[in-house]
Design goal:
185 residues, alpha+beta, seven-stranded mixed beta sheet, 4 helices, 28% helix, globular
């Protein structure tokens, strides 16, 4: 399956909302039970991109959205500003074609270029496919939280995974440049 990567835009929100809706209703990656509205997804998108985090779309040659990935704050306390959390969602027909791998690699590259030092994956449902994807991208398993959610009639575990970006902890970051200016209050 051929695909292209580009920055996501507000015009993608209906397709993003539909992909996420499927994940909420049929998957365990998201612990939401009720899919958010397009208006809510627009607010979430705006909050992420207004903070200069990357939000990437994967499309087919006709422009149909196949999946998306974004980085966002792991936590909004100032000391966490050097760490991002990744999120990747694919349309059902796009799964298993390497799109998630390419989206994650691009997200890692962009976050590294922005100056982030760590990336964390919070793998809802401890999905074996998502864990394998992250392991191949250089993430390490750093913790398994048992019974963190209850969805689709079963208890779900959450796998925490982490990957160093750029210089990681080898050097001190510059607090006067992005992402040092995030949550500096």
């Amino acid at each position: 399956m051929s695909f292209l990567l580009r920055d996501a835009s507000q015009a993608d929100i209906p397709a993003i909302a539909e992909i996420y809706r499927d994940s909420v209703l049929n998957g365990v990656a998201s612990y939401e039970i009720v899919p958010p509205s397009e208006a809510e997804m627009m607010q979430r998108f705006a909050a992420i991109v207004s903070q200069q985090y990357p939000y990437i779309a994967a499309t087919d040659a006709d422009g149909t959205l196949l999946g998306y990935a974004y980085a966002s704050a792991f936590r909004t306390r100032p000391a966490y500003r050097w760490m991002v959390e990744d999120s990747i969602y694919l349309a059902p027909e796009a799964r298993g074609h390497g799109i998630g791998k390419v989206l994650l690699a691009e997200l890692i590259d962009r976050c590294t270029a922005l100056g982030f030092r760590q990336m964390v994956a919070v793998v809802g449902g401890a999905s074996p496919a998502s864990i394998a994807l992250h392991l191949k991208a250089g993430f390490l398993e750093v913790g398994l939280m048992k019974g963190t959610g209850y969805k689709q009639g079963r208890w779900l575990d959450t796998m925490l995974m982490q990957r160093t970006l750029g210089e990681g902890m080898a050097t001190d970051p510059d607090p006067s440049s992005y992402p040092g200016t995030l949550f500096a209050g």
